[in-house]
């Protein structure tokens, strides 16, 4: 199971609010296939209105995170954190304490 820190929850809430998404809107975690430019696959984040079919849904403090079936096993037991930086936010994937 994936958990969110309070910082991640706050950052996602702000991003979704700024994007003016519906109540079902959230952050989706998926795989960015780098095969087109020879880059290794990486985690892709996007703001979406609803989960895709098969997504794992994480609801925490009114924030929705949708995790694709390809990413869910890779993030099992991990914690999503966030750091606010000038011009944006950086999300981090950490081992759960």
The arrangement of helices and strands along the chain is EHEEEEHEE
Fraction in beta strands: 35-45%
Report the uncertain regions.
none
How much helical structure, as a percent, in the residues? 10-25%
How many H/I helical runs?
2
Structural class label = alpha/beta
What's the number of extended β-strand segments? 7
Distance between the termini: 13 Å
Morphology = globular
* CA radius of gyration: 13 Å
Averaged pLDDT: 91
Question: How many strands, which pairing sense, and closed or not: the largest β-sheet?
Answer: 4 strands, mixed
Strand order of the largest sheet: 3-2-5-4
Could you outline the blueprint of secondary structure elements for this entry?
Blueprint lengths: L2 E2 L1 H13 L7 E7 L9 E7 L7 E5 L2 E5 L4 H4 L2 E8 L2 E8 L2
Parallel strand pairs: 1-6, 2-5
Antiparallel strand pairs: 2-3, 4-5, 6-7
Your description of this structure?
The chain is globular. It has two helices and seven strands; from the N terminus they run βαββββαββ. It is 18% helix and 43% strand. The strands form two sheets. The chain has a four-stranded mixed beta sheet with strand order 3-2-5-4. A three-stranded mixed beta sheet has the order 1-6-7. It starts with a strand and ends with a strand. The model has no long low-confidence stretch (mean pLDDT 91). Strand 6 and strand 7 form a beta hairpin. By secondary structure, it is of the alpha/beta class.
């Amino acid at each position: 199971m994936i958990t969110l820190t309070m910082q991640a929850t706050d950052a996602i809430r702000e991003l979704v609010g700024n994007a003016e998404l519906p109540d079902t809107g959230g952050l989706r975690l998926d795989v960015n296939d780098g095969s087109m430019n020879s880059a290794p696959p990486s985690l892709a984040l996007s703001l979406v209105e609803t989960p895709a079919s098969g997504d794992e849904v994480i609801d925490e403090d009114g924030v929705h995170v949708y995790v694709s079936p390809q990413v869910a096993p890779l993030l099992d037991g991990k914690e999503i954190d966030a750091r606010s930086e000038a011009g944006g936010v950086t999300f981090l994937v950490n081992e759960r304490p």
